[in-house]
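Students often ask why inverse folding is considered easier than folding. One informal answer: many sequences map to the same fold, so there is more than one right answer. In these notes we will look at a single instance of the problem. The structure comes first.
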């Protein structure tokens, strides 16, 4: 009997040991599983956080992309926007002109124009106009060459973009200005010089189109070719203009007093087209005071535009 009990106790101990071992193994497995679950949970939470952050960054980039797209669309339509603003701006000046000419308004207008540039001195003129918040019209030529006639170390053709950048009007004074060297030989020679300058302005500015011409030396220089030239200009969509006032800087000008006397004697109408030359140092000296003088005498200063009553069409 004792032998049987011993065998029973031994079998029980074995079973007990096995159960204990199983419990230990189960505990270890539970701990390992719990650790893995915790790792998985942490990984999930981290991935969830990373996903949320990535989603937020994606939304930010989406908004940035939309803003960039809208900005690019704005640039694509910039020319149309500028033309619309210019049309409205010049439209208001045209209404003012009409009121002045009909006697409905006592206001006065001075159109400030500069011939024969660009020159290195033109930079000084542009800076003065900027300081005085004045927009003008520049009747350009190209016979002086790529580098400034008055400073061969400076590239004058860069000034074409400066005219546009600073909001001035570029007009056509023919490519050569060659009054004594074939410009007025025929209507063809004149129109060819206009076309050549038009192409040059377009190339230098990236597409700017002129629509106002000034005859080098004035329209009287064309003599019997004046009407044929005017007809050809009309066919090509150009207006033309001379001037009503000047300081004499296109001829011999020896002092600021002489320039002032010339200006005083010619500025007397309610609408003036004033002729200056942007190479002349005397004009550059008096220009700030000229602007002050015009304003003090009731003149509003504007750039010329095609629809103006002062532009012949």
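Output (designed amino acids):
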């Amino acid at each position: 009997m004792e032998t049987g009990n011993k065998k029973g106790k031994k079998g029980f101990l074995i079973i007990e040991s096995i159960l204990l071992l199983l419990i230990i193994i189960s505990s270890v497995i539970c701990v390992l599983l719990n650790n893995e679950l915790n790792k998985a949970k942490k990984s999930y939470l981290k991935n969830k956080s990373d996903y949320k952050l990535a989603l937020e960054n994606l939304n930010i980039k989406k908004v940035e992309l939309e803003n960039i797209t809208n900005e690019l669309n704005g640039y694509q339509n910039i020319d149309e926007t500028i033309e619309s603003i210019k049309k409205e701006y010049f439209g208001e000046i045209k209404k003012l002109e009409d009121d002045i000419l009909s006697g409905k308004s006592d206001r006065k207008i001075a159109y400030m124009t500069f011939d024969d540039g660009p020159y290195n001195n033109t930079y000084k003129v542009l800076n003065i106009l900027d300081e005085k918040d004045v927009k003008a019209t520049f009747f350009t030529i190209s016979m002086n060459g790529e580098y400034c006639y008055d400073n061969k170390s400076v590239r004058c053709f860069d000034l074409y973009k400066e005219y546009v950048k600073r909001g001035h009007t570029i007009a056509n004074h023919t490519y050569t200005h060659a009054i004594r060297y074939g410009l007025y030989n025929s209507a063809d020679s004149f129109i060819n010089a206009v076309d050549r300058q038009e192409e040059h302005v377009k190339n230098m500015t990236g597409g700017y189109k002129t629509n106002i011409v000034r005859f080098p030396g004035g329209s009287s220089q064309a003599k019997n070719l004046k009407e044929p030239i005017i007809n050809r200009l009309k066919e090509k969509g150009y207006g033309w203009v001379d001037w009503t006032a000047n300081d004499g800087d296109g001829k011999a000008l020896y002092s600021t007093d002489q320039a002032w006397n010339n200006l005083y004697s010619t500025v007397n109408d309610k609408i003036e087209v004033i002729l200056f030359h942007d190479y002349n140092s005397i004009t550059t000296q008096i220009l700030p005071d000229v602007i002050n003088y015009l304003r003090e005498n009731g003149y509003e200063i504007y750039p010329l535009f095609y629809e103006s009553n002062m532009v012949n069409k």
